Description:
Blueprint: H1 4-15, H2 20-27, H3 31-40, H4 58-67, H5 72-81, H6 88-97, E1 118-130, E2 133-144, E3 150-155, H7 160-174, E4 176-177, E5 180-183, E6 190-192, E7 199-200, H8 202-211, E8 214-217, H9 227-240, E9 245-246, H10 249-264, H11 275-282, E10 287-288, E11 298-303, E12 309-312, E13 315-318, E14 327-332, E15 336-341, E16 344-350, E17 358-360, H12 380-388, H13 393-401, H14 407-419, H15 422-435, H16 440-455
Parallel strand pairs: 1-5, 1-9, 5-8, 13-17
Antiparallel strand pairs: 1-2, 2-3, 4-10, 6-7, 11-14, 12-13, 14-15, 15-16
Helix pairs in contact: 2-3, 4-5, 12-14, 15-16
Amino acid sequence: xxxxxTRTAILRLREEGHGTRSxxxxxxxxxxxxxxxxxxxxxxxxxxxxAEKAEPYRDRILELYASCKGNxxxxxxxxxxxxxxxxxxxxxxxxxxHGIGHEPRRxxxxxxxxxxxxxxxxxxxxxxxxxxxxxxxxxxxxxLCHCRMLFFQFYPRFTRFECKIFLTxxxxxxxxxxxxxxxxxxxxxxxxxxxxEMVPVPEMAAFxxxxxxxxxxxxxxxxNRSARVERPFDYIDNxxxxxxxxxxxxxxxxxxxxxxxxxxxxxxxSLHASPRELFAAERVRMRPLPVxxxxxxxxxxxxxxxxxxxxxxxxRYSVPWRLMGRAxxxxxxxxxxxxxxxxxxxxxxxRVIEQDNxxxxxxxxxxxxxxxxxxxxxxxxxxxxCERMPEMGPYITLLRSxxxxxxxxxxxxxxxxxxxxxxxxxxxxxxxxxxGLADLERLERMILRRIAKDFFVLRPDADMDPEPIDD
Length: 471
Protein backbone atom coordinates (compact mmCIF):
# COMPACT_ATOMS: atom_id res chain seq x y z
CA UNK A 1 0.00 0.00 0.00
CA UNK A 2 1.39 3.36 -1.09
CA UNK A 3 1.53 6.26 1.31
CA UNK A 4 -0.24 9.59 1.25
CA UNK A 5 2.73 11.53 -0.20
CA THR A 6 2.90 9.23 -3.25
CA ARG A 7 -0.85 9.54 -3.79
CA THR A 8 -0.57 13.32 -3.70
CA ALA A 9 2.24 13.22 -6.30
CA ILE A 10 0.13 10.99 -8.60
CA LEU A 11 -2.80 13.40 -8.49
CA ARG A 12 -0.53 16.42 -9.08
CA LEU A 13 1.14 14.83 -12.10
CA ARG A 14 -2.27 13.88 -13.53
CA GLU A 15 -3.42 17.48 -13.21
CA GLU A 16 -0.28 18.56 -15.07
CA GLY A 17 -1.33 16.36 -18.00
CA HIS A 18 1.05 13.43 -17.65
CA GLY A 19 -0.12 10.02 -18.79
CA THR A 20 -0.44 6.88 -16.73
CA ARG A 21 2.71 5.29 -18.17
CA SER A 22 4.91 8.37 -17.55
CA UNK A 23 3.58 8.77 -13.98
CA UNK A 24 4.25 5.12 -13.18
CA UNK A 25 7.77 5.33 -14.67
CA UNK A 26 8.57 8.56 -12.75
CA UNK A 27 7.36 7.28 -9.36
CA UNK A 28 8.51 3.67 -9.76
CA UNK A 29 5.08 2.16 -9.27
CA UNK A 30 2.73 0.08 -11.40
CA UNK A 31 0.22 1.57 -13.83
CA UNK A 32 -2.62 -0.20 -12.01
CA UNK A 33 -1.84 1.68 -8.83
CA UNK A 34 -1.83 4.97 -10.73
CA UNK A 35 -5.23 4.16 -12.23
CA UNK A 36 -6.76 3.26 -8.82
CA UNK A 37 -5.54 6.49 -7.23
CA UNK A 38 -6.85 8.53 -10.11
CA UNK A 39 -10.23 6.79 -9.87
CA UNK A 40 -10.49 7.59 -6.12
CA UNK A 41 -9.46 11.20 -6.70
CA UNK A 42 -8.18 11.59 -3.08
CA UNK A 43 -4.78 11.38 -1.44
CA UNK A 44 -6.23 9.88 1.77
CA UNK A 45 -5.13 6.33 2.45
CA UNK A 46 -8.26 4.10 2.69
CA UNK A 47 -8.68 2.05 5.82
CA UNK A 48 -8.73 -1.71 5.58
CA UNK A 49 -12.03 -3.13 6.72
CA UNK A 50 -11.51 -6.64 8.00
CA ALA A 51 -13.89 -8.80 9.97
CA GLU A 52 -12.57 -9.58 13.46
CA LYS A 53 -12.92 -13.17 14.60
CA ALA A 54 -13.55 -12.13 18.20
CA GLU A 55 -16.29 -9.63 17.39
CA PRO A 56 -19.18 -12.18 17.71
CA TYR A 57 -17.96 -13.01 21.23
CA ARG A 58 -17.58 -9.40 22.45
CA ASP A 59 -20.25 -9.59 25.16
CA ARG A 60 -18.95 -12.96 26.40
CA ILE A 61 -15.38 -11.64 26.48
CA LEU A 62 -16.51 -8.72 28.68
CA GLU A 63 -18.24 -11.13 31.09
CA LEU A 64 -15.28 -13.49 31.29
CA TYR A 65 -12.83 -10.60 31.69
CA ALA A 66 -14.69 -9.48 34.82
CA SER A 67 -15.09 -12.97 36.28
CA CYS A 68 -11.47 -13.97 35.51
CA LYS A 69 -10.11 -10.79 37.19
CA GLY A 70 -8.56 -9.51 33.96
CA ASN A 71 -6.56 -12.67 33.17
CA UNK A 72 -6.80 -13.04 29.39
CA UNK A 73 -5.23 -16.51 29.51
CA UNK A 74 -8.21 -17.73 31.54
CA UNK A 75 -10.60 -15.86 29.24
CA UNK A 76 -9.12 -17.64 26.22
CA UNK A 77 -9.33 -21.03 27.94
CA UNK A 78 -13.04 -20.54 28.75
CA UNK A 79 -13.80 -19.32 25.21
CA UNK A 80 -12.01 -22.31 23.73
CA UNK A 81 -13.95 -24.63 26.08
CA UNK A 82 -17.20 -23.08 24.80
CA UNK A 83 -16.19 -23.80 21.19
CA UNK A 84 -15.03 -20.36 20.08
CA UNK A 85 -12.32 -20.55 17.40
CA UNK A 86 -10.29 -17.54 18.45
CA UNK A 87 -6.53 -17.67 18.93
CA UNK A 88 -4.89 -16.06 21.91
CA UNK A 89 -3.05 -13.40 19.80
CA UNK A 90 -6.35 -12.51 18.11
CA UNK A 91 -8.03 -12.19 21.52
CA UNK A 92 -5.33 -9.93 22.96
CA UNK A 93 -5.27 -7.78 19.80
CA UNK A 94 -9.07 -7.43 19.94
CA UNK A 95 -8.95 -6.37 23.59
CA UNK A 96 -6.16 -3.93 22.87
CA UNK A 97 -7.97 -2.30 19.92
CA HIS A 98 -11.25 -1.97 21.81
CA GLY A 99 -9.75 -0.82 25.11
CA ILE A 100 -10.69 -3.91 27.14
CA GLY A 101 -8.26 -3.91 30.08
CA HIS A 102 -5.95 -1.43 28.36
CA GLU A 103 -5.92 2.24 29.27
CA PRO A 104 -4.83 4.46 26.42
CA ARG A 105 -1.39 5.86 27.00
CA ARG A 106 -1.08 9.49 27.79
CA UNK A 107 1.85 11.57 26.59
CA UNK A 108 4.55 12.04 29.17
CA UNK A 109 5.30 15.59 30.27
CA UNK A 110 8.51 17.16 31.40
CA UNK A 111 9.37 19.50 34.27
CA UNK A 112 11.96 22.17 33.73
CA UNK A 113 13.78 23.70 36.69
CA UNK A 114 15.93 26.76 36.72
CA UNK A 115 19.21 26.73 38.70
CA UNK A 116 18.53 27.10 42.42
CA UNK A 117 14.76 26.82 41.98
CA UNK A 118 13.91 23.48 43.59
CA UNK A 119 15.32 20.52 45.48
CA UNK A 120 13.38 17.33 46.24
CA UNK A 121 13.53 15.22 49.41
CA UNK A 122 11.98 11.83 50.20
CA UNK A 123 12.64 8.53 51.99
CA UNK A 124 12.35 4.91 50.92
CA UNK A 125 12.63 1.61 52.87
CA UNK A 126 15.46 -0.74 51.93
CA UNK A 127 17.38 -3.65 53.45
CA UNK A 128 21.10 -3.50 54.25
CA UNK A 129 23.57 -5.77 56.05
CA UNK A 130 24.86 -3.72 58.99
CA UNK A 131 26.91 -5.24 61.79
CA UNK A 132 26.56 -8.76 60.39
CA UNK A 133 22.74 -8.60 60.36
CA UNK A 134 20.40 -7.89 57.46
CA UNK A 135 17.97 -5.26 58.72
CA UNK A 136 15.52 -2.69 57.38
CA UNK A 137 16.84 0.85 56.89
CA UNK A 138 15.27 4.14 55.94
CA UNK A 139 17.08 5.73 53.00
CA UNK A 140 16.77 9.52 52.97
CA UNK A 141 17.64 11.27 49.72
CA UNK A 142 18.03 14.90 48.63
CA UNK A 143 18.38 15.89 44.94
CA LEU A 144 18.98 19.26 43.29
CA CYS A 145 16.49 19.32 40.41
CA HIS A 146 18.52 21.34 37.89
CA CYS A 147 21.91 19.63 38.06
CA ARG A 148 20.71 16.24 39.52
CA MET A 149 23.27 16.30 42.35
CA LEU A 150 22.45 13.45 44.78
CA PHE A 151 22.99 13.03 48.52
CA PHE A 152 21.59 10.19 50.67
CA GLN A 153 22.07 8.61 54.11
CA PHE A 154 20.71 5.65 56.10
CA TYR A 155 18.79 5.73 59.40
CA PRO A 156 17.12 3.05 61.55
CA ARG A 157 14.05 5.29 61.77
CA PHE A 158 13.08 8.62 60.25
CA THR A 159 11.45 11.18 62.53
CA ARG A 160 11.65 14.96 62.52
CA PHE A 161 14.88 14.69 64.49
CA GLU A 162 16.53 12.53 61.79
CA CYS A 163 14.96 14.75 59.10
CA LYS A 164 16.66 17.87 60.48
CA ILE A 165 19.97 16.01 60.84
CA PHE A 166 19.79 14.76 57.24
CA LEU A 167 18.76 18.07 55.70
CA THR A 168 21.49 19.89 57.60
CA UNK A 169 24.12 17.45 56.34
CA UNK A 170 22.71 17.60 52.81
CA UNK A 171 22.69 21.39 52.66
CA UNK A 172 26.24 21.50 54.03
CA UNK A 173 27.24 18.90 51.41
CA UNK A 174 25.82 21.11 48.63
CA UNK A 175 27.02 24.32 50.22
CA UNK A 176 23.60 25.99 50.03
CA UNK A 177 19.85 25.49 49.53
CA UNK A 178 17.34 25.94 46.72
CA UNK A 179 14.33 28.20 47.13
CA UNK A 180 11.86 25.29 47.41
CA UNK A 181 12.02 21.78 48.87
CA UNK A 182 9.46 19.40 47.35
CA UNK A 183 8.15 16.55 49.56
CA UNK A 184 5.25 14.11 49.41
CA UNK A 185 2.04 14.32 51.42
CA UNK A 186 2.98 11.65 53.98
CA UNK A 187 6.25 13.20 55.06
CA UNK A 188 7.16 13.99 58.67
CA UNK A 189 7.23 17.67 57.72
CA UNK A 190 3.46 17.76 57.01
CA UNK A 191 1.18 19.02 59.78
CA UNK A 192 -2.09 19.19 57.80
CA UNK A 193 -3.42 19.54 54.27
CA UNK A 194 -2.14 18.21 50.95
CA UNK A 195 -0.57 19.68 47.84
CA UNK A 196 -0.55 23.44 47.75
CA GLU A 197 -2.73 23.49 50.89
CA MET A 198 -0.09 21.63 52.91
CA VAL A 199 0.85 23.28 56.21
CA PRO A 200 4.28 22.27 57.58
CA VAL A 201 5.01 21.66 61.23
CA PRO A 202 6.09 24.97 62.83
CA GLU A 203 9.33 23.37 63.97
CA MET A 204 10.20 22.37 60.39
CA ALA A 205 8.98 25.68 58.94
CA ALA A 206 11.39 27.50 61.26
CA PHE A 207 14.14 25.10 60.21
CA UNK A 208 13.52 25.99 56.55
CA UNK A 209 13.56 29.72 57.29
CA UNK A 210 16.97 29.34 58.91
CA UNK A 211 18.40 28.05 55.60
CA UNK A 212 16.27 30.26 53.34
CA UNK A 213 13.86 27.73 51.74
CA UNK A 214 10.23 26.65 52.07
CA UNK A 215 8.59 23.21 52.05
CA UNK A 216 5.98 22.34 49.42
CA UNK A 217 4.08 19.09 48.77
CA UNK A 218 3.01 17.82 45.35
CA UNK A 219 -0.64 17.15 44.56
CA UNK A 220 -2.14 13.82 45.59
CA UNK A 221 -1.61 11.23 42.83
CA UNK A 222 0.96 13.34 40.99
CA UNK A 223 3.96 11.15 41.79
CA ASN A 224 5.78 12.32 38.66
CA ARG A 225 6.18 15.71 40.29
CA SER A 226 8.83 14.22 42.60
CA ALA A 227 10.49 12.02 39.98
CA ARG A 228 13.89 13.63 40.47
CA VAL A 229 14.20 12.10 43.94
CA GLU A 230 12.14 8.94 43.33
CA ARG A 231 14.22 7.65 40.42
CA PRO A 232 17.59 7.28 42.27
CA PHE A 233 16.10 4.98 44.94
CA ASP A 234 16.11 2.00 42.58
CA TYR A 235 19.69 2.84 41.58
CA ILE A 236 20.74 2.97 45.24
CA ASP A 237 19.06 -0.36 45.99
CA ASN A 238 20.44 -2.27 42.99
CA UNK A 239 23.85 -0.63 42.74
CA UNK A 240 25.09 0.73 46.06
CA UNK A 241 23.45 -1.78 48.42
CA UNK A 242 24.02 -4.78 46.16
CA UNK A 243 26.66 -6.99 47.79
CA UNK A 244 27.87 -4.37 50.27
CA UNK A 245 28.32 -5.02 53.99
CA UNK A 246 28.80 -2.38 56.66
CA UNK A 247 30.41 -2.58 60.08
CA UNK A 248 27.97 -0.11 61.65
CA UNK A 249 25.73 2.83 60.80
CA UNK A 250 28.64 5.27 60.68
CA UNK A 251 30.44 3.04 58.17
CA UNK A 252 27.30 2.79 56.02
CA UNK A 253 26.79 6.55 55.87
CA UNK A 254 30.49 7.19 55.24
CA UNK A 255 30.46 4.83 52.24
CA UNK A 256 27.19 6.41 51.03
CA UNK A 257 28.79 9.86 51.01
CA UNK A 258 31.82 8.57 49.08
CA UNK A 259 29.51 6.86 46.57
CA UNK A 260 27.62 10.15 46.07
CA UNK A 261 30.91 11.88 45.23
CA UNK A 262 31.61 9.21 42.62
CA UNK A 263 28.13 9.23 41.05
CA UNK A 264 27.88 13.03 40.97
CA UNK A 265 31.15 13.23 39.04
CA UNK A 266 30.05 10.65 36.44
CA UNK A 267 29.09 11.88 32.95
CA UNK A 268 25.41 11.39 32.03
CA UNK A 269 24.35 11.04 28.45
CA SER A 270 20.91 12.59 29.08
CA LEU A 271 22.49 15.71 30.61
CA HIS A 272 25.44 15.91 28.16
CA ALA A 273 27.56 16.59 31.28
CA SER A 274 28.10 15.38 34.82
CA PRO A 275 25.96 16.68 37.72
CA ARG A 276 29.13 18.13 39.25
CA GLU A 277 29.76 20.23 36.14
CA LEU A 278 26.17 21.54 36.08
CA PHE A 279 26.33 22.20 39.80
CA ALA A 280 29.05 24.79 39.22
CA ALA A 281 26.48 26.96 37.43
CA GLU A 282 23.67 26.25 39.89
CA ARG A 283 25.61 26.94 43.07
CA VAL A 284 25.82 30.70 42.42
CA ARG A 285 21.98 30.81 42.30
CA MET A 286 21.44 28.88 45.55
CA ARG A 287 20.75 30.35 48.99
CA PRO A 288 24.06 30.50 50.92
CA LEU A 289 24.40 28.78 54.26
CA PRO A 290 24.04 30.91 57.41
CA VAL A 291 27.21 32.10 59.10
CA UNK A 292 26.65 29.61 61.91
CA UNK A 293 25.04 26.22 61.30
CA UNK A 294 23.93 25.03 64.76
CA UNK A 295 24.19 21.39 65.70
CA UNK A 296 20.89 19.51 65.57
CA UNK A 297 20.01 17.86 68.87
CA UNK A 298 16.97 16.42 70.62
CA UNK A 299 16.37 17.61 74.18
CA UNK A 300 15.51 15.16 77.00
CA UNK A 301 14.91 15.69 80.70
CA UNK A 302 16.26 12.82 82.79
CA UNK A 303 16.69 12.07 86.50
CA UNK A 304 19.94 10.26 87.38
CA UNK A 305 19.07 6.83 88.77
CA UNK A 306 20.50 5.22 91.88
CA UNK A 307 23.35 3.66 89.88
CA UNK A 308 24.48 6.99 88.40
CA UNK A 309 23.07 6.57 84.83
CA UNK A 310 20.61 8.33 82.54
CA UNK A 311 18.50 6.35 80.06
CA UNK A 312 18.16 7.45 76.41
CA UNK A 313 16.53 5.12 73.83
CA UNK A 314 17.11 1.96 75.91
CA UNK A 315 20.81 2.75 76.41
CA ARG A 316 22.29 3.92 79.73
CA TYR A 317 25.00 6.56 79.97
CA SER A 318 27.00 7.30 83.13
CA VAL A 319 27.19 10.70 84.84
CA PRO A 320 29.25 11.78 87.89
CA TRP A 321 27.99 9.75 90.83
CA ARG A 322 27.54 12.79 93.04
CA LEU A 323 24.63 13.89 90.76
CA MET A 324 22.43 10.89 91.62
CA GLY A 325 18.81 11.95 92.00
CA ARG A 326 19.33 15.23 90.15
CA ALA A 327 17.20 16.28 87.15
CA UNK A 328 19.60 16.88 84.24
CA UNK A 329 19.27 18.02 80.63
CA UNK A 330 20.34 15.47 78.00
CA UNK A 331 21.10 16.56 74.43
CA UNK A 332 20.98 13.78 71.84
CA UNK A 333 22.79 14.64 68.60
CA UNK A 334 23.66 12.42 65.65
CA UNK A 335 26.85 10.98 67.15
CA UNK A 336 26.94 12.09 70.82
CA UNK A 337 24.98 12.20 74.06
CA UNK A 338 25.81 15.31 76.12
CA UNK A 339 24.56 15.73 79.69
CA UNK A 340 24.21 19.22 81.19
CA UNK A 341 23.73 20.32 84.78
CA UNK A 342 22.36 23.78 84.12
CA UNK A 343 24.72 25.50 81.67
CA UNK A 344 27.64 23.16 82.45
CA UNK A 345 28.34 19.95 80.55
CA UNK A 346 29.04 17.18 83.05
CA UNK A 347 29.24 14.16 80.72
CA UNK A 348 29.69 13.35 77.03
CA UNK A 349 29.37 9.89 75.40
CA UNK A 350 29.32 8.42 71.87
CA ARG A 351 25.70 7.78 70.89
CA VAL A 352 24.64 4.12 70.75
CA ILE A 353 22.33 3.29 67.81
CA GLU A 354 19.91 0.35 67.79
CA GLN A 355 21.31 -1.52 70.80
CA ASP A 356 19.25 -2.39 73.86
CA ASN A 357 20.37 -2.57 77.49
CA UNK A 358 23.83 -1.14 76.79
CA UNK A 359 25.80 0.64 79.54
CA UNK A 360 28.37 3.28 78.65
CA UNK A 361 30.52 4.01 81.71
CA UNK A 362 33.42 6.40 82.17
CA UNK A 363 35.90 5.63 84.98
CA UNK A 364 35.92 9.20 86.24
CA UNK A 365 32.16 9.01 86.85
CA UNK A 366 32.53 6.20 89.41
CA UNK A 367 33.49 6.92 93.05
CA UNK A 368 36.94 5.84 94.35
CA UNK A 369 37.09 2.64 96.35
CA UNK A 370 37.27 4.59 99.60
CA UNK A 371 34.20 6.67 98.74
CA UNK A 372 30.69 6.09 97.66
CA UNK A 373 27.91 4.13 99.34
CA UNK A 374 30.27 1.98 101.43
CA UNK A 375 32.73 4.75 102.27
CA UNK A 376 34.22 4.54 105.78
CA UNK A 377 32.80 7.11 108.16
CA UNK A 378 35.09 8.90 110.60
CA UNK A 379 34.12 8.26 114.24
CA UNK A 380 34.02 10.92 116.93
CA UNK A 381 37.05 9.37 118.70
CA UNK A 382 39.09 9.44 115.51
CA UNK A 383 38.15 13.07 114.87
CA UNK A 384 39.11 14.01 118.44
CA UNK A 385 42.39 12.10 118.15
CA CYS A 386 43.29 13.82 114.85
CA GLU A 387 42.49 17.21 116.35
CA ARG A 388 44.63 16.56 119.44
CA MET A 389 47.52 15.05 117.57
CA PRO A 390 47.44 15.22 113.71
CA GLU A 391 50.62 13.11 113.54
CA MET A 392 48.55 10.06 114.57
CA GLY A 393 46.90 9.81 111.12
CA PRO A 394 49.48 7.44 109.52
CA TYR A 395 49.42 5.20 112.61
CA ILE A 396 45.61 4.98 112.55
CA THR A 397 45.86 3.95 108.89
CA LEU A 398 48.35 1.26 109.90
CA LEU A 399 45.97 -0.03 112.55
CA ARG A 400 43.10 -0.28 110.10
CA SER A 401 45.28 -2.12 107.55
CA UNK A 402 46.01 -4.74 110.24
CA UNK A 403 42.34 -5.22 111.09
CA UNK A 404 42.40 -3.02 114.18
CA UNK A 405 41.47 0.60 114.85
CA UNK A 406 38.12 -0.07 116.46
CA UNK A 407 36.47 1.91 119.20
CA UNK A 408 38.50 0.23 121.96
CA UNK A 409 41.84 0.77 120.17
CA UNK A 410 41.11 4.43 119.46
CA UNK A 411 40.22 5.01 123.10
CA UNK A 412 43.48 3.35 124.12
CA UNK A 413 45.52 5.58 121.79
CA UNK A 414 43.58 8.63 122.95
CA UNK A 415 44.42 7.78 126.59
CA UNK A 416 48.12 7.54 125.73
CA UNK A 417 47.98 10.94 124.04
CA UNK A 418 46.40 12.43 127.14
CA UNK A 419 48.73 10.78 129.70
CA UNK A 420 52.21 10.62 128.13
CA UNK A 421 54.59 13.38 127.02
CA UNK A 422 54.34 14.35 123.35
CA UNK A 423 58.05 13.92 122.61
CA UNK A 424 58.18 10.37 123.93
CA UNK A 425 54.94 9.46 122.19
CA UNK A 426 56.14 10.77 118.80
CA UNK A 427 59.42 8.91 119.12
CA UNK A 428 57.62 5.66 119.86
CA UNK A 429 55.22 6.28 116.95
CA UNK A 430 58.06 6.80 114.49
CA UNK A 431 59.69 3.60 115.57
CA UNK A 432 56.38 1.68 115.43
CA UNK A 433 55.67 2.97 111.89
CA UNK A 434 59.19 2.05 110.83
CA UNK A 435 58.70 -1.59 111.81
CA GLY A 436 54.93 -1.78 111.11
CA LEU A 437 54.13 -2.40 114.76
CA ALA A 438 50.36 -2.43 115.43
CA ASP A 439 50.49 -3.91 118.96
CA LEU A 440 49.31 -1.14 121.33
CA GLU A 441 50.75 -2.90 124.44
CA ARG A 442 54.23 -2.91 122.93
CA LEU A 443 53.76 0.70 121.81
CA GLU A 444 52.92 1.72 125.35
CA ARG A 445 55.98 -0.16 126.76
CA MET A 446 58.16 1.68 124.23
CA ILE A 447 56.76 4.99 125.53
CA LEU A 448 57.36 3.96 129.14
CA ARG A 449 61.01 3.06 128.45
CA ARG A 450 61.53 6.56 127.03
CA ILE A 451 60.14 8.28 130.14
CA ALA A 452 61.37 5.82 132.81
CA LYS A 453 64.33 7.91 134.01
CA ASP A 454 62.35 11.13 133.96
CA PHE A 455 59.34 10.10 136.04
CA PHE A 456 60.27 6.91 137.88
CA VAL A 457 63.58 7.34 139.94
CA LEU A 458 64.54 4.07 141.74
CA ARG A 459 66.14 4.18 145.28
CA PRO A 460 69.23 2.08 146.01
CA ASP A 461 67.26 -0.02 148.52
CA ALA A 462 64.45 -0.54 146.05
CA ASP A 463 64.90 -4.29 146.41
CA MET A 464 64.33 -4.22 150.26
CA ASP A 465 60.95 -5.02 151.65
CA PRO A 466 58.90 -1.96 152.51
CA GLU A 467 58.23 -1.10 156.10
CA PRO A 468 54.87 -2.19 157.42
CA ILE A 469 52.25 0.48 157.66
CA ASP A 470 50.79 1.04 161.06
CA ASP A 471 47.08 0.87 161.22
